[in-house]
Amino acid sequence: AKSKGRNRWCFFSFDLHQKSVARQNLTNDLRQALLNKEFFLQYQPIVDLKTNRLVKFEALIRWQHPTRGLVPPDAFIPVAEESGLISDIGDFVFKQSLLQLAKWRSQFSVDLMMSINISPYQLAAPDLHMVGWFDFLHKQDLPRGSVSLEITENILMHHTEIVSEQLLAFRDHGINVALDDFGTGYSALSYLNRLDIDYIKIDRSFVKDLADGAMEKDLCEAIISMAHKLNLKVIAEGIETTEQANILQSFGCDLGQGYLFAKPLSVEDAEALLASQSIN
Ligand code: C2E
Ligand code: CA
Ligand code: CA
Ligand code: CA
Predict the structure, then answer these.
(1) Of the candidates 105, 181, 117, the residue with the CA atom closest to the CA atom of residue 146
(2) pLDDT tens, residue by residue, 3-39
(3) What ipTM does this complex have?
(4) Do residues 266 and 42 lie in contact, with contact meaning Cβ atoms separated by under 8 Å?
(5) CA-to-CA dists, residue 195 to 8, 126, 163, angstroms
(6) Which atom of ligand 1 is nearest to the CA of 73?
(7) What's the pLDDT score for residue 145?
(8) Distance CA 41, CA 61 (A)
């Protein structure tokens, strides 16, 4: 540590070295986590804003590390993407959430849907796992439209032939596509029409500002009516107050997600919710 200040070059290279060591450690831990089955999914309810009823879940990955504790996805997904481990992780998420959906649909006899985050890295460079996804999907005997993949808007920036081919293949197999974090990237509205997309998810930052003033409201209302004109359904994420929910509902927003309704739930808590809903 003493030698750190000797000269700038030395300082920076020491720092960079430490960062790359930390990154390497995380990568090794991720590899180990796959072997030790340290990943699991939580499920956050998405509700119909008119009835407040549960219609789908978003699957969200969690990592229970033996010493680091619970590591949030934002802390490891980027490292997984850089190291290529995202391919194995994404495969786990896809299969696990489909199995869960099929089980819940039959157990609770509900018309439930599931939304799954997919890394743009996987879309841009389809891996060996994905070749088997459609077979796996059809084995679960799920109706068309009951599974959606959430992709972030910035994938459109790097919109290549391969991405649009992938989206078409998903569509062929009855998988819907949701554009995640809508409004945060460089949206080229023309992409919305050109690509086959079924839902947009209005980013949390817009919902957060909703009660602030007329400008913020107008913006959200405009996004929703534009989406509807393009035959897209709208999901608002990060709804935390009834005021936000009411405003969005008055704009005709279709679906909502956020702490107001429920946090991401464990399998047990999700099942308790499903059980309570099926009584009605
Ligand atoms: P995202 O796809 O935008 O997911 C929504 C995030 O917002 C989740 O954080 C969720 O817990 C959080 N959230 C939900 N409702 C509220 C709310 O009312 N208020 C606030 N403040 N936050 C809310 P999480 O689970 O930490 O996930 C973070 C990001 O990590 C996700 O953002 C997604 O980009 C990525 N991610 C999560 N699971 C997966 C996965 O299985 N695969 C991939 N590739 N990425 C994932
Ligand atoms: Ca998402
Ligand atoms: Ca999002
Ligand atoms: Ca996000």
Answers:
(1) 105
(2) 554 555 555 576 777 888 888 999 999 999 999 999 9
(3) 0.97
(4) yes
(5) 49, 18, 9
(6) 30
(7) 96
(8) 5
